[in-house]
Amino acid sequence: MSSGIFACIEASNKISQYEKCSHKSLDSLNLTLESESLFQCARQCSSIDLICKTFSYSSATNECSLGTCVTTKPTNDTNDNSVDIYVSSNVPKCDEVDGFTVMSYGLVNACVWFSNYTTNYDNASKACISKGAILYTVKQIGKLYILQRFKEKYWIGLTYRVNEKLYRWSDGALFPNTSYWKDIFSSGEPNYPGYENCVQYYIMGSQTLNDIICNTLLKYVCEIPCFVEK
């Protein structure tokens, strides 16, 4: 991140500080709002307690994109303010959080913690939350490649919401209704939504994802979705 403070934004009787990030890649909350200015976009982000850690603003479209995580994607383009990303200055350094470490694949980075014991999905999710983290998401194919270094089955942060009849990541974002399904799931999966409502990293065959009954006992991976590498 750059060292310069972007601004102090007053919202809901509190002050939130944001810094311009030198990496321009946003792990989106799947939430885009209309804003009249960069400052209004910052206020919209800071009004969402604890969830929104990053935002970007397009002056061309007046779109404010809110997110949870910054990943490294260096750019030499410092003149295009419409794609600048700003990050809350109170995010932790990954190596300062007990047991967490940065793992990378190409330009994709994740701050992760691996359990050494098994439990069901609900308990795994609660354990991650107790660490200030969430169950690991695979919103980018590089994050699946990180998992493929390991010969273990793990819970990851994706569930089928029966009432909504759709899949959501552990941060609440919707799973995109695109061809990304076939990139990260095993052939023919997921095949039992409504019964097998939780998702595991599956080590057999192509080492991809598979839906499974939520009471299954598996190891799990936590991630801190917004962090500073160093």
TrEMBL record:
Q: Can you give the residue ranges of the Apple domain? A: 8-90
Domain of life of the organism in this record?
A: Eukaryota
Domain C-type lectin residue range list: 107-223
Q: What is this protein called?
A: Lymphocyte antigen 75-like isoform X2
UniProt source species? Biomphalaria glabrata
Its organism's taxonomic lineage begins at: Eukaryota, Metazoa, Spiralia, Lophotrochozoa, Mollusca
Tell me the gene name. LOC106051832
